[in-house]
């Protein structure tokens, strides 16, 4: 049966959290706010606007709307500098192998990401052409944990949500997949991604037998 496999981008296909961290840290420093790696972890799956709101909240800062917009643009310019250096070598282990397996089996393949830079990143790592549908931060009103991004991806694939499987590294994303009535597969630590239906440390632990079971379910 044709199932819809929806991939998150950041933390699932590529490890961009390190670049988000560098860019947010630089921005936080410029406004005298301390920003740690642990705080960066809490921004996984969180939209750009919400991320800056949280950083300001943690630093007890209030700024004007126009300064807020300026800071968001500065952060993104900085982040894009890192993205610009990316190539295929940054695709996380066995992601391509799993993608190719699913394509071979004629499954629906979509991207469901909170990032507004998702299309740029997919092109940089040469994966853009593998996706039948792409839904990203430009296409949704409500961010994860709202299920909008995954429901839109299912719609674009023309596959019912209950026949979709989501790969996600963030808690908010797992919650979004569960609310969308999809099978949620956490990529990361099981202690963090407790709400997922399945958790794997990375794609090297996902074998063809497991994928076949999902397809034939
Ligand atoms: C998510 C990341 O995928 O995209 C978040 O996990 C990020 O850390 C969000 O804030 C928005 O990304 P961008 O590229 O639009 O700033
Ligand atoms: Mg992610």
UniProtKB/TrEMBL annotation:
Cofactor: Mg(2+)
Entry keyword Isomerase: yes
Assigned keywords, A-Z: Carbohydrate metabolism, Isomerase, Magnesium, Metal-binding, Phosphoprotein
Keyword check for Ribonucleoprotein: no
Cofactor comment: Binds 2 magnesium ions per subunit.
UniProt xrefs under Gene3D superfamilies: HAD superfamily/HAD-like, Putative phosphatase, domain 2
List of residues binding substrate: 8-10, 24, 43-48, 51, 75, 113-117, 144
Superkingdom per UniProt: Bacteria
InterPro entries membership: B-phosphoglucomutase_hydrolase (IPR010976), Beta-PGM (IPR010972), Beta-PGM-like (IPR051600), HAD-like_sf (IPR036412), HAD-SF_hydro_IA (IPR006439), HAD_sf (IPR023214), PGP-like_dom2 (IPR023198)
Pfam families per UniProt: Hydrolase
EC number: 5.4.2.6
Record site feature (Important for catalytic activity and assists the phosphoryl transfer reaction to Asp8 by balancing charge and orienting the reacting groups), residues: 113, 144
GO MF, one example: magnesium ion binding
Catalytic activity: beta-D-glucose 1-phosphate = beta-D-glucose 6-phosphate
Residues that, per the record, bind Mg(2+): 8, 10, 168-169
UniProt GO BP: carbohydrate metabolic process
Active site residues of this protein: 8 (nucleophile), 10 (proton donor/acceptor)
NCBIfam families recorded: bPGM (TIGR01990), HAD-SF-IA-v3 (TIGR01509), PGMB-YQAB-SF (TIGR02009)
Family designation: Belongs to the HAD-like hydrolase superfamily. CbbY/CbbZ/Gph/YieH family.
Name of the molecule in the record: Beta-phosphoglucomutase
């Amino acid at each position: 049966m044709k199932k819809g496999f929806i991939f998150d981008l950041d933390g699932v296909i590529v490890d961009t959290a390190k670049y988000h961290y560098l860019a947010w840290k630089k921005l936080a420093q410029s406004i005298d706010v301390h920003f740690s790696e642990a705080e960066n972890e809490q921004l996984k799956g969180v939209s750009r606007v919400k991320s800056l709101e949280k950083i300001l909240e943690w630093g007890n800062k209030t700024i004007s709307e126009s300064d807020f917009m300026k800071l968001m643009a500065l952060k993104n310019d900085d982040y894009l500098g890192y993205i610009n250096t990316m190539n295929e070598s940054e695709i996380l282990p066995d992601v391509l192998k799993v993608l190719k397996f699913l394509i071979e089996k004629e499954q629906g393949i979509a991207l469901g990401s909170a990032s507004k830079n998702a299309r740029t990143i997919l092109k940089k790592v040469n994966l853009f052409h593998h996706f039948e549908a792409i839904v990203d931060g430009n296409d949704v009103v409500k961010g994860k944990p709202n299920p909008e991004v995954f429901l839109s991806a299912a719609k674009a694939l023309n596959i019912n949500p209950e026949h979709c499987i989501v790969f996600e590294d963030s808690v908010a994303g797992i919650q979004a997949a569960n609310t969308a009535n999809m099978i949620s597969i956490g990529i990361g630590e099981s202690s963090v991604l407790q709400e997922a239906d399945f958790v794997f440390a990375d794609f090297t632990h996902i074998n063809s037998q497991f994928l076949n079971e999902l397809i034939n379910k």
